[in-house]
# Entry
Amino acid sequence: MSHTALPASIPGSPPSGLALSPRQTRLLLLGLGLATGMEFYTFDSMNLVLADLTGTLGVSADEASWLLTVYSCALFLGVPV
# Structure
């Protein structure tokens, strides 16, 4: 039975001694909060233009709501990235 040594850290992960200061933590949370708020208002504005989408693109209301669903999924996945 052979034993292989595991690496000390996972490649691409930050060093274990790296810690955020309280100021950096507050700024990080503030930035994430602002990004989430902007996402909410963008999504809310898309609900307002749903009727305009149906007329402009010539699609039914159901198809326009699917466009809104795809747009919101892209936003929800894009914020953490």
Observations:
- The radius of gyration is 22 Å.
- Helices lie at 22-48, 50-57, 61-78.
